[in-house]
Amino acid sequence: MSKFYRKAFVPSTLAGILLLSILLLTSGCDLLLPAATLSPTETPTQTQTPTPTIDWFPASPTATLLPESTPTPQPTLADQYEGVGDLRLQDDFTDERLWTTLQTESGNAVFGNGNLTLAGAKQNAYLFSDSQHALNSNFYLEITIQTSLCQPADQFGIIFWRQSQSDYYLLSFDCSGQYRLALVQDGQSIVLRNWESASQMQPGYPAENHVGLWVIQGLFRLYINDTFQFEESISRERTGELSIFARTVTGDAITVRFSDLKIYKIDISY
Questions:
Q1: Is 88 helix (H, G, I), strand (E, B) or coil?
Q2: 145 CB contacts (<8 Å, ≥6 apart)?
Q3: Separation between Cα atoms, residue 255 and residue 223, nearest integer Å
Q4: How far apart are CA 7 and CA 142, in angstroms?
Q5: pLDDT tens profile 48-104
Q6: Would residue 74 count as lying in a domain?
Q7: What span, in angstroms and rounded, lies between the C-alpha atoms of 127 and 105?
Q8: Looking at residue 168, which CATH number applies to its domain?
Q9: CA distance 155 to 109
Q10: Which of 19, 28, 76, 89 sits a CA distance of 20 to 30 A from 103?
């Protein structure tokens, strides 16, 4: 082979090889390369902060049962005489020096046959009579009250521990058969027991009721016709005078008679 041929062959040969390589690369054939072995990469595990569990339906707490209370027995007829001692005073309403009387357009407070009668003659009449009887801090008092004329809302009753005309305890009854206890001081009424229906009390008129007040060391009990009504705490070391009253509220006439007053000593060591 001549030198010219060899020189011409070498470049053409190289050009052919290059052309073949380009054709292979641009053809639709996929070249399969050996799969590389990948080293597994460990994913770090995230440690989560624990959160408190919410109880959306909590169980109801078990109720603690309190021991059943034992009802306090109400005083009986025999109980009312606990601590009651000797008769200290008895008033049959024959000594007119022991009670004040009056005669006005609104009504009268006058002595009758063994009684003191309060008679109102107009609406909103307020009648009262003050006694010379002093009440100690502990006492048991009995009195009979007769209503001869009244309307259901008309009132009558007892003023005890009266220290002035504006300082006393007021035990009221009405003609419908209710009672009320209040402390009056400086014109202000402090209700201790509001209107409640009395047990075994004769309402209306004519009617007769026996009233008992049992007071010992600041404890007040009311009895009507030997029947216990209620118990209430009141002043402990108070004393004062005794009065009675009657007043018309809706009616224009009332007649109430008070008789057979007895006041007993109380033995506080019973």
A1: strand
A2: 156, 173, 208, 209, 210, 211, 256, 257, 258
A3: 22
A4: 160
A5: 444 333 332 333 333 333 333 344 455 554 455 688 889 999 999 999 999 999 999
A6: no
A7: 11
A8: 2.60.120.560
A9: 15
A10: 89
**Does 207 map to a domain?**
yes
Closest by CA position to 171, among listed 262, 82, 77, 246: 246
Q: Provide the domain limits for residue 185.
A: 79-266
Q: Which amino acid is it at 72?
A: T
Return the residue matching tokens 């008092």.
Answer: 141
Q: For residue 43, what are its two tokens?
A: 């994913």
For residue 17, being part of any structural domain is answered with no
| Domain assignment present for 103 | yes
Domains identified in the chain, total number: 1
Tokens of 54: 């919410």
Tell me how long the chain is: 270
Residue 215 to residue 220: CA distance in whole angstroms: 5
Exposure on the CB side of residue 241, measured as CA atoms within 13 A: 16
Give me the residues paired with residue 220 across strands: 215, 232
Q: Which of 216, 221, 220 has the alpha carbon at shortest distance from 237?
A: 216
Question: pLDDT for 179-210, tens place per residue?
Answer: 999 999 988 999 999 999 999 999 999 999 99
